[in-house]
Amino acid sequence: MFPRLSVLARDVSEVAFGEKAMFSPILKRWHPLAAGVAVATLHVCYGHELKQYVKSVTELTPDTVQTLMAADKLEKDLVHIAVEDSVDSDDGGKSVIREMCPYEAEAVIINLVKSWIKNRVDTLEECVDRNLQEEVCCSQSNQSKKGT
Description:
The protein has helices at about 5-20, 25, 35-55, 60-85, 95-100, 105-145. It has about 150 residues and is mostly helical. It is rod-shaped, with a radius of gyration of 26 Å.
């Protein structure tokens, strides 16, 4: 089963490409960046859901990675549509792209990996310390037995 936000990302991408094909050519009569505005709006809406999800994530899981990778792909699709739609505009679509705050999915994954590694190193350090203490205790116990 796919994580809900992964499915939502795929669906939003389909909506964006459908909007670009069906509605933007007509709406372009009234607004030169119709597809760009549409995908920027979709980007913000999905971004809101993604931000709530990221706040709740505490560890790296396959579902988390899948969700963040789907969000990254969606963002690339939406930016591509916006850029393609605004090729002929005065600013090349920079104004629309600036409105699209990055999801930074890769950075979230990197931070989760760092946290996972730190937790594993801490756990390993605790195990090593415990084993060293046991070894010292056993060594002292053996020496006291020999002394008697």
